[in-house]
Design goal:
By secondary structure, the chain is an alpha+beta fold. The chain is built from 9 helices and 9 strands. The protein folds into 3 domains: 1-53, no CATH class; 73-164, Hypothetical Cytosolic Protein, Chain: A (2-Layer Sandwich), CATH 3.30.1230; 166-272. The strands form 3 sheets. It has a 4-stranded mixed beta sheet. Strands 4-3-5 form a 3-stranded antiparallel beta sheet. Helix 5 packs parallel to helix 8 (233-240) and helix 5 runs antiparallel to helix 9.
Length: 285
């Protein structure tokens, strides 16, 4: 046997269907793991353990949106100085826009998930605070003293117009994207019609499709969201269109690993609009 053949047969990349040869080690994403980092005789790392191996308590915590929100990395609000989980903050980044004179102007713009730029600053997730930052160039306090990209003065930066509407649009699109994914899985029972005589766990939440049922069907034990106020009628109609849930007045979003991101997106949007009547109850996150 040649040295090249021996190395291929004894490598951790060896196909698993070769009889008499070492089985390939993979993580939960199907990617190969070196035996040096992940020996077969040792227990897999926590992130590589299958869901069935977790205790009932760890399963419940892992599927709880409130616990996951508190577990996000702690960052400091550049305006208030408060250190909070990232769930409660709005990230900003430097974005260059080209003006009519063909000059690139830096803007302190809301961070987009699709952007590859690093986060520049953080501010508390509040529409009132964002509007206050736009007054008398208060937003320059987010920049601090360390400037990047060769900029020498904070006056070189610009603040986008109607930035609160930009952030609101981003948060709404995130909610629509995550709820649409949940709504398109009717067999999983991730979203069920609200029953007035049924008790639901506090970790669930009620999605009101029509504002007129808020007073009659409100359940004080769990958080309720008025989707017509959070998303607007146009986005809400697009969300429930061509689904089996469109005829219901209210829905229950259950607690599950598959609905956790939807819970978090709803809480972030609700917190941003907390000054309005978008939520029927105070958001718990």
């Amino acid at each position: 046997m040649s040295t090249k053949t021996w190395r291929r047969w004894h490598s951790h990349l060896t196909p698993a269907n070769n009889r008499g040869r070492k089985t390939q080690i993979t993580n939960n994403h199907g990617l190969p793991v070196s035996p040096i980092l992940e020996p077969l005789k040792e227990k897999p790392a926590r992130e590589h353990q299958p869901l069935e191996s977790l205790t009932s308590f760890r399963k419940e915590v892992a599927a709880n949106a409130f616990a996951n929100a508190l577990a996000t990395p702690v960052r400091q609000c550049n305006f208030t100085g408060a250190r909070l989980p990232l769930h409660y903050l709005l990230p900003f980044t430097t974005k260059f826009l080209r003006h009519e004179d063909d000059k690139l102007v830096p803007y302190l713009a809301p961070f987009e998930n699709s952007s590859r730029q690093a986060t520049r600053a953080y501010a508390f997730n509040s529409r009132q605070l964002v509007n206050r930052l736009g007054q008398k160039k208060t937003w320059q306090r987010l920049l601090g003293h360390e400037l990047r990209f060769g900029l020498t003065s904070r006056s070189d930066y610009k603040w986008p117009k109607q930035i609160d509407e930009i952030i609101l649009s981003q948060l709404r699109q995130s909610v629509v994207r995550k709820l649409a994914w949940v709504f398109n899985k009717p067999k999983a029972n991730l979203v069920i019609p609200l029953q007035s005589n049924t008790e639901y766990p506090p970790s669930a939440c009620i999605l009101y499709l029509r504002a007129k049922v808020l007073s009659s069907s409100s359940n004080p034990s769990i958080t309720g969201y008025d989707l017509s106020g959070l998303l607007g009628l146009e986005l809400l109609e697009t969300l429930v269109k061509d689904t089996s849930l469109a005829d219901n007045d209210a829905l229950v979003l259950t607690q599950s690993y598959m609905t956790m991101s939807a819970h978090i997106a709803l809480a972030r949007l609700s917190t941003f609009l907390s000054s309005s009547d978008a939520t029927s109850n105070s958001a718990k996150t």
